[in-house]
Design brief:
Oligomer: heterodimer
Largest interface: A-B, 34 and 39 residues
Strand content of chain B: 15-25%
Structural class of chain A: alpha+beta
Strand order of the largest sheet of chain B: 4-3-5-2-6-7-8
Radius of gyration of chain A: 17 Å
Strand order of the largest sheet of chain A: 2-1-6
CATH topology of chain A: hypothetical protein PF0899 fold
Distance between the termini of chain A: 32 Å
Order of helices and strands of chain B: HEHEHEHEHEEHHEHEH
Number of helices of chain A: 2
Helix content of chain B: 25-40%
Distance between the termini of chain B: 61 Å
Structural class of chain B: alpha/beta
Shape of chain B: globular
CATH architecture of the largest domain in chain B: 3-Layer(aba) Sandwich
CATH superfamily of the largest domain in chain B: P-loop containing nucleotide triphosphate hydrolases
Order of helices and strands of chain A: HEHEEEEE
Number of domains of chain B: 2
Strand content of chain A: 25-35%
């Protein structure tokens, strides 16, 4: 969707962390991406390589950890894990599900030198 | 001796070692995040900057961030929300595909709300056409051109708000860039996202772009005057909207003929009143 904006957000946070912790280079950066976050991972990886140039994270390895999609089923009123946003409720088969988790897109940690 | 700073070097290594360790606690002025030999019998995995250990990773070099990538936008949105709350203003973020009739709907809304203070922020990639259409009604409007950007962000809206001199107790309408994907993720500080869906777009649009309709509090099914001329099934539109968002409000309107517009204005006034009550309480 807006992977370039996300990569720019990551760059800003890398620069802020570099100032705070006094590191010069990021070796590896781990992101947590929820299933419903709408992030195109290959596009983000491409943008990451381009946007990090000239920053401490230039050439850093990018690792993306998937987080499960959890939704509240408005038919059986239970929280269920679903793989796809439009999947039916695995318990009651209902189709009215509202996501309660899985829209995360955050930097988990960085391995720095 | 500490090879980073040289501390611990000198005549009284015994006494200094303790002080040195103390000085290297996270948060102390001297702390610079490197490992020290902690002596016999101690294996402490929680003293690095990360405060934890991850197998295969040198802990002194792991920095826990745990921060949303859009944290900066979210913080700015919170600032916008605070300003709006202090003003007692209600802000609507209008989202839709290009061509759903957002600007016409706004022009007609402004006419229907004559006497109510309101202002408009228009977002488009290029041109000031939409802001000019709004200004022609007499309402103040700021045009934001995003250039290559596909959505408005909280920084753009905050800067536009500064220039608008918002009236206390009024409404702020933010017309987002026509796009059903990206604007869903960017909080602008609004009180509600309102999605506009025109009856020529296809009944399954909410299923194709569920994120936006999940984020919206109200869906306006617009151009209903065209429905008899097409094969549009308005009930199917509503069923699909409720499938992706069981809590969504839905109103059928035609900005062109005025059908349903009174209900939309009533919805706005009720939301504003509820916000005012919540603030007072």
């Amino acid at each position: 969707m807006h992977e370039m904006s996300l990569a720019e957000g990551i760059r800003q946070m890398v620069l802020a962390e570099a100032q705070r912790h006094g590191f010069t280079a990021v070796r590896r950066l781990r992101l947590e991406i929820g299933r419903f976050a709408g992030v195109e991972k290959t596009a983000l990886a491409f943008c990451f390589d381009v946007v990090m140039r000239g920053s401490p994270a230039e050439g850093a390895e990018l690792e993306m950890i998937d987080l499960p999609g959890v939704a509240m089923c408005y038919d059986c009123m239970r929280e269920v894990e679903i793989a796809d946003r439009l999947d039916p409720c695995p318990i009651c088969g209902g189709g009215r599900l509202v996501p309660v988790a899985g829209d995360e897109m955050r930097i988990k940690d960085m391995e720095v030198v | 001796m500490c090879t980073v700073c040289g501390c611990g070097d000198g005549a009284k290594p015994g006494g200094l070692a303790l002080n040195h360790d103390a000085a290297h606690r996270p948060g102390s002025a001297h702390h610079h995040g490197h490992d020290h030999d902690r002596g016999q019998g101690q294996l402490h995995f929680g003293t690095g900057p990360a405060g934890l250990s991850v197998a295969g990773v040198s802990q002194a070099r792991l920095i826990e961030v745990e921060t949303n990538i859009l944290a900066k936008n979210d913080a700015l949105a919170t600032g916008n929300r605070r300003v709006l709350r202090a003003l007692g203003a209600y802000a609507v973020n209008l989202v839709s595909s290009p061509g759903s009739g957002k600007t016409t709907l706004l022009v007609k809304t402004i006419a229907a709300m004559a006497g109510v203070p309101l202002a408009v922020i228009e977002g488009d990639q290029q041109t000031e056409n939409d802001a000019e259409r709004i200004r022609a009604t007499g309402a103040p409007a700021i045009q934001i051109n995003t250039g290559k950007g596909c959505h408005l962000d909280a920084d753009m809206v905050g800067r536009a708000m500064e220039r608008l001199n918002l009236t206390p107790g009024g409404f702020l309408f933010i017309e987002n860039v026509g796009n059903l994907v990206c604007p869903a993720a960017f909080d602008l500080g609004e009180d509600a996202k309102v999605a506009i869906l025109s009856v020529t777009e296809g009944e399954d649009k909410p299923l194709k772009y569920p994120d936006m309709f999940t984020a919206a509090r109200l869906a306006l099914l617009n151009k209903v005057d065209l429905a008899p001329h097409t094969d549009a099934d308005l009930d199917a539109y509503e069923a699909n909207l409720r499938r992706v968002n069981p809590r969504i409000d839905i109103l059928r309107v035609s900005a062109r003929t005025g059908e349903g517009m009174a209900g939309w204005v009533t919805w706005l006034r009720r939301q504003h009143a509820a916000k005012t009550l919540a603030k007072a309480g």
